[in-house]
Amino acid sequence: MPDTDTGGSTPENAEDGTRFDTLRIGSFLSGRRQSTYMATDATSVMVVGGGVAGLSAALFTARAGLSTTVVSTGESILQRNAHLENYPGFPAGINPRLLLDLLEEQVSGAGVEFVGGRIQRVTRDGETFELLDADGEHYDADYVIAASWADATYLEGLDVEFLDRGSKTFVGVDEFGSTTVEGLYAAGRLAEQHHQTVVAAGHGAQVGIAVVEDSDVDFYHDWTVPEGYFTERGREVPPGCEEVDDAERERREVESIERMREAFAEPHPGDPTMHPSVVDDAQRR
Fold first, then answer.
1. In this structure, are residues 183 and 44 in contact, taking their beta carbons and an 8 Å threshold?
2. What CATH number is attached to the domain comprising 138?
3. Would residue 241 count as lying in a domain?
4. How many domains does the chain have?
């Protein structure tokens, strides 16, 4: 993908006066490598795995305007936690099932589609990925983010680097989550990240932004700023950013408070999911 636009307007928008239109802003600012992979007009992203990493990645791709689908078995490993005590922003911890519910709600509100199923095979046909699930359903996507743990066998038909670490198998990625296959990324534990919820969330977000940068969508930052932050300096609001006035800012804060008060009003009804080996042992007794 070229570093600069070959035509069209180039208004000054960024903090330092950087020009952009079809310039891939994120890659330009971060200095990360440029992808040669071009998405289709209706850019689509398929995220395999509905845990924290996959949902965080989906949140960023959807908010940037990419058509995003999450396919999940509904078996996020986060559900095994009894109480999540090291996720920033919750001094007394948070019920991990509630955190997952809220993240799913947020991602759904961003326009992400959810599909139940277990992906069994991913293949590449030209610049399009084809995904097949256990029920025979087929999906096409321009980009795929593998965020499932701990199964990566559905990627064996692609030229992916696998890393065997004892009983665990990870997918080799670069610092941005890109695999050796153009357009295919891995996020979270599958990408050999630490087995911590906040790490999975952060890595998923990083991978999601990498996909946005590698696509042909205009993007600067996912920011909501006060009215005039850009425009009062004679700059247009950059792609991905939004200016809001005081009334809208206050409305959003009230909505946030009300939603959080509702979410935390009662204990979450769900129980932790036990480790599969413990369940198997109990069933054999």
1. no
2. 3.50.50.60
3. no
4. 1
Beginning with the edge strand found earlier in the chain, give each strand of the sheet holding 184-186 in spatial order. Answer: 113-116, 67-72, 44-48, 143-146, 184-186
Quick one: pLDDT band at residue 227, thresholds 50, 70, 90?
very high
Cβ–Cβ < 8 Å for 131, 89: no
How far is 37 from 201, CA to CA, in rounded Å? 26
Domain extent, residue 38, equals 25-214
Averaged pLDDT score across all residues of the chain: 86
Give which of 269, 263, 277, 223 is closest to 90, Cα–Cα. Answer: 263
Maximum Cα–Cα distance for the chain, whole Å? 73
Q: Go through 223-239 and write b for each residue having 16 or more CB atoms within 10 A of its CB, e for each that does not.
A: eeeebebbeeeeeebbb
Contact 150, 168 (CB under 8 A): yes
pLDDT at 98: 98
Q: Is residue 156 part of a domain?
A: yes
CB-based contact 230:207 (threshold 8 Å): no
